[in-house]
Design goal:
The structure holds 2 protein chains of 2 kinds. Chain A is mostly helical. Chain A is 66% helix and 0% strand. Chain A has 5 helices and no strands. Chain B is mainly α. Chain B has 2 domains: 34 residues; 90 residues, no CATH class. Chain B contains 3 helices and 2 strands, in the order αββαα. A two-stranded antiparallel ribbon of chain B has the order 1-2. In chain B, a hairpin with a 2-residue loop joins strand 1 and strand 2. Chain B is flat. Classes of the chains: A mainly alpha, B mainly alpha. At the A-B interface, helix 1, helix 2 and helix 3 of A face helix 1, helix 2 and helix 3 of B.
Amino acid sequence: MTSQWTTLALVVGWILTIMLGLLGLIIVWLIISGRIDLKDLISEPNGNASLSRFQFLIFTFVIAMSLFLMIVSTSPPSFPAIPGGILALLGISGGSYVVSKGIQTTKEVGIMDAVYGKGTGDGRSNPSVAGVAASVVIPPVPPKPE
Amino acid sequence: MQTLLSFARIEVGLVLVALALVVGYQLLSGKINIGGLLLEKTGTGAGGYSPARLQLLLITLVAAFYFISEVVNSIHNGAPQFPDVSEKWLLILGGSHSIYLGGKVNSLFGIFRDPETTNSPKGDSQ
């Protein structure tokens, strides 16, 4: 029974390894041949390159390479412990990205327009404010008796 | 089992290195757009070069090289592990990001900009 499970584990291991390897190589080949276009990999919607995205790209490769080197250099291969400092480092990077996007969206949408509705930004075009104003009926002032 | 492990090591290493080389080449050759990476983003579009962005880029690259060198050192010492990032590095990175975010707020909303010299539309400098 044990030898059967070992054989099964080996077969599944080989299938997964070959499948993942082929998938990785196909993706790399599609990038090289231009069928996967990475032109806007670190671009913002307006076409400018984003420093936050670039930073994420660098840290992704650094962490992936480090993880791979550490796993293959241990015998038997094992997943290393991740210290709190690394998480803090990635947290700073990710937090900065999120705050940066928040600032940019606030500018693009316009916080006053978001609160008061699109338009002048002074509340006059706010549908809810306009609705309240329309529902208040001010009676006409009767003319003074002469 | 040893054959499978060796094969998996070579394969994953190959794919990772190939991916890094392709992305690196496309970044350097301009196929991946890096236009405006160091330009200030103002309310009316891209402005001049931003020192805040430049310092963040440099600090990021230095931190990445420090990280990789620490990992390689630990492997050479026979105890492979992630480096324990010291408080000093966290403060440097946190400060660098704060400067970047402060610069971004200033360039977009024009808090410290002279209203007479700005060419943003009415309301942007407020």
